[in-house]
Amino acid sequence: MAPIPARPARSRGRGGYWLYLIPSGLLFLAVIVVPFLMNVATSFTRWSGVGTPTWIGFANYTKLFGDERFWTSFEHNVALIVAMAVVPTIVGLVLAAALFDYIGKRFGPRTASALRAAYYLPQVLPIAVAGVVWGWMLHPSYGAVNEIFGLKVNWLGDPDYALATVMAVMVWFQLGYPVVIFMAGLQRVDPALYEAAEIDGASWWRRFWHITISQIRPEIYVVLLTCTIAALKVFGPIFVLTRGGPGSATMVPSYFSYLNFFEKVNVGYGSAIATVLALIIVVVTFLFLRVQERDS
Amino acid sequence: MTAGRVVSAPAARVGAARPPAPRSPGRWAVLTALVVLAVVMLFPFVIVTLNAFKSPADYSAGSPLSLPAHLYVQGIVDFWNRVDFGQKLWNSFLISGSVAVAAVVLSVLNAYALGIGKVRGRLWVLVVFLVGNTLPQEALAYPLYYLSKQAGLYDTKLSVILIFTVIQAAFGTYLLSSVLGQFPHEILEAAALDGAGKWRALWRIVVPISRPTLSVLLIFFFIWTWNEFFLPLIFLISNDNQTVPVAIGVLQGEKMMDATMSSASALLGIVPAVAFFLIFQRTLTRGVTVGAVK
Questions:
Q1: Where in the cell is it found (chain A) (predicted)?
Q2: Is domain A77-267 classified as CATH 1.10.3720.10?
């Protein structure tokens, strides 16, 4: 038998660090990896949640691609991406630049901070509570919005208005996030750039376009990515405000899968919806990261 | 869930100190426009608060914009008692607090191995954690529901604590690994020469030095977990276990809720969230920008 080599001192070298990954590794396996694989497997079965699932191959997916409600729910997702990612990013850029570059310099940083805090406040609410606030304000019989403007609109109950109303609520909820991130990003920008542009006689819009936007590009990507993912996942406001209705006027994939899981007990079908949603989100994430990498 | 997955300082210093630019009338127009927008953003908060303190008769007599005729707290008291709101606050606090602490501990352990230990294949580990954090909870919900029933954990706070600890730690690992990747190695080498093992070095050196970053993570984990809705809605069905957002969200639109009680319930949901914002703002303003944004 060969002599046992002396063990290297435990504190030196690089060995042994992987031990620190074990607790998370096990939990991650139990809470994320295994459930996700189970979800994918279930999507190939017909199952009511009790008894043995019946293997039906791709039948759920075939049904899914022919299901009008499924396609509508993704169209609504696109609308919510506009409301939660596109509009807040564009408006947020203008607001952040105006606060940082204009208000901060002409009225003092405290004014700018106070305005920023006002824009950000909706973001601190649990999204379900934000839904309750607006559910109350938009109530058809006693809601504050109708009372104040003397209207009789059923904002959330009329299929013509429901989606637009939800979109407006989401803009309100989301706007503060890009403002805060962009203003933090603007701290990095060398003030000399602005001064040079100002001396050259560049207008505020030109400076905004050529300096602000190009300098905080990384923040713009992060905001667009995180907000797009949040829009794809949106559930709480739909549950609280409309339950996907009226009809399927505000149906989104996450609520559609919830409905199939827990109300219609079509677990296999619900799993297929959730799997497609997960795939889309992962693909969107990778696309964004690729574009960002190529850009920088 | 909010989109706020980027940890940043919400109230860092604004504007550079420069002599004020020449004054023009246009600047007041800009300021007015921005103030009007701020009023619109704050309007729901104001109006919910106003009407939470009105009696139903007072509400139907005046406009939602009018001040309460007299301070009426019965709506708030009734709602509080009906949902046992104190219990809900405690549940939310217990769940969010446990998740925050446990997720920070796990993030530190992982980031120690990945950022400082630089174990082989660390990039892949990070990608897996990040994908795990990005996955929609819908794609985990039913199996988790099924498994927790099998394990006898369904409708317990523990199930929700376990799940969110993993989800938050997955994100925390990603953030903290890049922070610890820049940890000065000389300090650790000096400690090793003094005979401190890895375990001691972690708790005696790395953790104390990274404390500002860790406290920011702790706060964010707490708030994110407090705000969660989807999984707590599925897992916490009994009244004794529900969290604040679930209790308020489920009661919304119920027939027994009149106008003022509805606004009282909204107010009770708003108050803790705004309180956290005000309490934690100071910690977050210390210029700590941990982050995804380089």
A1: Cell membrane
A2: yes
